[in-house]
Amino acid sequence: MTDKAKLDRRSFLQRAAFAGTAAAGTLAAPAVLAQAPIVLKMQTSWGAGNIWQEFAQDYADRVEAMSGGRLKIDVLPAGAVVAAFQVLDAVNDGILDIAHSVPVYWYGKNKAASLFGTGPVFGGSATTMLSWFYEGGGKALYDELTQDILGMDVDGYLGFPMFAQPFGWFKGEVNTVEDLDGFKYRTVGLAADLLQSMGMSVAQLPGGEIVPAMERGVIDAFEFNNPSSDKDFGAHDVAKNYYLSSYHQASESFEFLFNRLTMEDLDPDLAAILKYGVEAASTANTAKAMRRYSADLKWLQEEAGVNVHRTSESILAGQLEAWDKLIPQLEEDPFMKKTLDSQRAWVEQVTYYELMNSPDYTLAFNHYFPGKLKM
User: Fold this and answer.
1) Is residue 206 very low, low, confident or very high in pLDDT (cuts 50, 70, 90)?
2) Where does Na(+) bind (predicted)?
3) Is 147 flagged in the annotation as binding?
4) How far is CA 278 from CA 44, 111, 136, 236, 258, in A?
5) 249 carries a ligand binding annotation
6) Global confidence as pTM
7) Domain total in the chain
8) 233 among the known binding-site residues?
């Protein structure tokens, strides 16, 4: 952030506080003082019609309620101020106070961004890796990357452990690694490196550009994230084979980016509400995603004529083999190696417990809903 931007931002907050004090001086002593809310500008990386824009609004609503109306967040869609992939720079520069995005969208600045959600999965889920962020040293590594290595004036937190992302949308069936050869495919981050090594030609596009690119022939297969977003994009209008289950992006969470000066200038309780509101929204987003994603998958199957498949074990095994070849290249970078070592140690410990402790949910599901699950 420039010195002028910092001074402008600090002056804005000081003026807001002074206005509240001046208003208080005009009231009789016993009166309850009304404080004008502090309005913060948050832009997302999502289109106005995407379910994720609702998720961002869920966060804003909780912050306003928890602050008793002292904080209000103006939630804007991608492109309202800056492009979807530019929100990190905008928060750093003080153009935005907050952004709602994913780390992989600033992968172009440093490939290590992809390790905070779209790196090798090692067997842990998104919930496993979100726990690593908060309890396994991930936040300190994230701060080292954003603040020390990149020199950004931001403070970021992760929330909402996403369900593993589908392998995506194809016009025909794909059953083997050989079937993938030559596809022009959309994904982002290290998944691009991974799938290029498996024979695909990859374009990294924001969500809102995917279906138009498919219609123009720029790509002929793609993934984004989930059935609800895919339905909103109109994915079913350009392809009819939808493959769930993949190791290319199996442990991602949302990123909430805050301008550090904004956080420092707020009263400590308000800064805490912004920070811990991420955890509140994470729970709310998870519940909404379970309801909406499952309902929209049902709609895609029954109303839109989509053929829903589970990605073959052959392709899944091929993805793991491709990760095995990619990881040593990533570890040539000392920070990447340190982060991957931390993640591996966490997954080995935590996922061992998770898997040993988990009953076979598939067995129970098949017991009560026989014949429904086609593996």
Assistant:
1) confident
2) 224
3) no
4) 14, 25, 18, 32, 11
5) yes
6) 0.88
7) 1
8) no
